Amino acid sequence: MKLTSERVRYVAGLANLNLSDEEVERFRADLSGILEHVEKLNELDTSGVPPMAQVLYPAEDTATLRPDRDRPPLGAQTALANAPQAGAGHFKVPKVIER
Amino acid sequence: MREMSTPTLELASAEAIARYEPVIGLEVHVQLATVTKIFCGCPTSFGAPPNTNVCPVCLGLPGALPVLSKDAVELAVKAALALNCQIRSQSRFARKNYFYPDLPKGYQISQYDEPLAEHGWVDIRIDGQTKRLGVTRVHMEDDAGKSIHDGFKDSDLYTYVDLNRCGTPLIEIVSEPDMRSADEAYAYLTELKQMLQFVEVSTCDMEKGHLRCDANVSVRPKGAANFGTKAEVKNVNSFRFVKIALEYEIARQVALIESGGEVAQETRLFNPDTGETVGMRSKEHAHDYRYFPEPDLAPLRISDAWLDQIRATLPELPAQKRQRFVESFGLRDYDAQVVTLTRATADYYETVAAVSGDARAAANWVMGELTGALNAEGKAIEESPVSARQLGELVALIRGGEISNKLAKEIFPKMLASGESAPAIMEREGLKQISDSGALEKIVDDAIAASPKQVEQYKSGKTAVLGYLVGQVMKASRGQANPGSVNELLRKKLC
């Protein structure tokens, strides 16, 4: 499947990436190659196979659930330790302006 | 998001609006009443210092894995059952991808193509009629954190982010576009809230954001078969505001169409200060969430046995209660409505009715004296200084003829003030209605002896003077004689 450069820009936008024209062209070629490779799977007949979302085994209905009991949280000091910017107990991020 | 500058619009006249039919659907987010978050053991307690109730899972740190809360599932199923939904034996979580600083994972874990429950309905009462509104689906998801854009000294440069709310368990209840007026939307929300509180799925505390509402609204000429283009109104955090926002939006859309324009499909923000909605310029691709199945969570399976177990924990629902109160207690529709407004009120009322043995008088006392007193003190019925049993005892005393209604109304404030029972107060203050015929007879005899002139007048045919004698007896008994018995006794003695 050959991707158009519009398609590449669209996907980059969803991923919050700004690409130069040069990069768009490079990713267009790379992504097209990847998609073509994966397209090979379409050669298999999967009409009788139910879709599988993940590899987790079908457990008893409550086996993968947890009880509603609280555990000590990290606390603000640890939570904010790796924050590039913090203040007044909050994460600080550049002013949010919808693009 | 940035607001678009829109020229002030002339709203449509009532006559123009009357030619159109609004079509409204609501999306309601409800916080489930669990102790911990949906996918981790962090507490959901409200008002904690910022970023204290967080862990690797709800912070979205690499490698952290979500584990679904069993209690959250049970509450969600309870809500769905109360809304008459069909529960899927297997549902699936999905990632809804978007970028925002208060969403550290970069995606919300929600449900998409296989939601927990579907095909439900809610009955509302509107203009004395019952109308059934469809519930499209109920699904589970986690909440995002909180972005604070104002209030800090460098707020012009920075947005502050508190992630305590991240991972709070929510259900989203999506209605069918079945509502045809702002009033119906208001009635739906009221019914929904009452129901969810009744089944104890959520405390629905609006001030804490436990119940949030987005409204989809469009208008079409009356009789038209197709829906008009809809706008989505967000940021409406009280039922009253929903009504105001919808009424504004209906008038705006009608005016647009009447003037030859078109309604744009867009998201609009409600401004509570002006009562208006304002269009938002949204990102071009804002609605491409690229949902895909959540690989870190197994499908949610709900066996018939588990479903039955959950169903068994459902209490009697408000509508059933109302019907029972009308049919077996003989309450009027309106009274049944009032005493079932909350589960606490309904439980309180039922105890009063049972203890007193007089269901209608119980309703009058709960709606009248009790509610009045609690309102005056700003208390909820759960905090009432007079317990349901105590009020029941008071009403029982009236029913048994031991005290008059008037005397009961004097005793009640004393119960409120002291928390003592009615019999205890009567005992202490000697307030018992005199039903002992010997004691009453003595007071009557004394009154007759003390009023020879009036007795003579009565005997000569001026029967109106009997009122004076009754008054004398009541005075001598300090209001504790039964006026009926006094009347009867006096007549007997004077003939």
Descriptive account of the structure:
The complex is a heterodimer of chains A (99) and B (495). Chain A has 99 residues and is of the alpha+beta class. Chain A has 3 helices and 3 strands. Chain A has a domain at 5-42: Histone, subunit A. Chain A has helices at residues 5-14, 21-38, 76-80, and strands spanning 65-66, 86-87, 90-94. In chain A, a hairpin with a 2-residue loop joins strand 2 and strand 3. Chain B has 3 domains: 14-304, no CATH class; 318-429, no CATH class; 437-493, Orthogonal Bundle (Arc Repressor Mutant, subunit A), CATH 1.10.10.410. Chain B has 17 helices and 17 strands. The termini of chain B are far apart. The interface between A and B is large, with 41 and 63 residues. Strand 3 of chain A pairs antiparallel with strand 10 (158-162) of chain B.
Biggest β-sheet of chain A: count, sense, barrel?
A: 2 strands, antiparallel
State the end-to-end CA separation of chain B.
Answer: 90 Å
**Number of DSSP strand runs of chain A:** 3
Kindly state the percentage of residues in helix of chain B.
40-55%
Indicate the structural class of chain B.
alpha+beta
The number of distinct helices of chain A, counting runs of at least 4 residues, comes to 3
* Total E-strand runs of chain B: 17
Strand order of the largest sheet of chain A: 2-3
Number of helices of chain B: 17
Largest interface: A-B, 41 and 63 residues
Mean pLDDT value of chain A:
87
Strand order of the largest sheet of chain B: 3-7-8-11-1-12-13-14-15
Strand content of chain B: 15-25%
| Percentage of residues assigned to helices of chain A | 25-40%
Seen as an oligomer or otherwise, the chain set is heterodimer
Instruction: Indicate the mean pLDDT of chain B.
Output: 89
Cα-atom Rg of chain B, whole angstroms?
Answer: 31 Å
Integer tally of domains of chain B: 3
Distance between the termini of chain A: 31 Å
